[in-house]
Write a structure and sequence with these properties.
Strand content: over 45%
Helix content: under 10%
CATH topology: Jelly Rolls
Shape: globular
Number of domains: 1
Mean pLDDT: 91
Order of helices and strands: EEEEEEEEEEH
Radius of gyration: 17 Å
CATH superfamily: Jelly Rolls
Number of helices: 1
CATH architecture: Sandwich
Largest sheet: 7 strands, antiparallel
Number of strands: 10
Structural class: mainly beta
Distance between the termini: 52 Å
Low-confidence stretches: 1-8
CATH class: Mainly Beta
């Protein structure tokens, strides 16, 4: 049987992404906060009626994080470049560190624990596809795990359109 997959010796190749091909919105946080908040977001598209929004997040190689959060909707994640580092924040104060390399896909119906995300030594570009029948995507939490804000499809669209 003939192998029609791309790549050498029948192994698929990972497509490359050109980050400069996208418009990015820089997200920063309080410089005196407990961790550095810094990443870029590119909203690719949405369908409010279907409850979906797709976006890219770009993390630098200097440890910039997203805000601590918990996904509360179905989310499909694909690491396109670099490494995605996740620190799960457990109720007992411990942290569980996970690394997803380029090409790794993860699907969650919602997270049991809040977490921090950042890029690895070379940063990261990560694709997120959110699916939410009520429009709620994730909860921003403080250091104690208390919910500070809920991010929705509408709030992400408003932030993107207001840039």
């Amino acid at each position: 049987m003939e192998d029609h997959r791309a790549g050498t010796k029948g192994e698929p190749t990972m497509p490359t992404i050109d980050p400069d091909a996208y418009d990015w919105l820089e997200i920063t946080g309080d410089p005196d906060g407990p961790y550095p908040v810094h990443h870029d977001i590119a909203v690719l598209g949405w369908d409010r009626d279907a409850g979906t929004i797709d976006l890219l997040i770009r993390f630098d190689d200097r440890g910039g994080h997203c805000q601590a959060h918990r996904h509360i909707s179905a989310t499909s994640v694909l690491v396109l470049a670099g490494e995605q580092h996740i620190e799960e924040l457990r109720p007992d104060g411990s942290r569980v560190h996970k690394v997803r390399a380029a090409g790794v896909h993860h699907l969650t119906a919602g997270d049991p624990y809040p977490h921090l995300e950042r890029g690895g030594p070379d940063g990261a570009v990560v694709f997120f596809s959110h699916h939410s029948p009520d429009g709620r995507l994730y909860e921003i939490v403080d250091e104690a795990g208390a919910v500070r804000a809920t991010v929705t499809i509408d709030s992400l669209i408003a932030m993107w359109e207001g840039r």
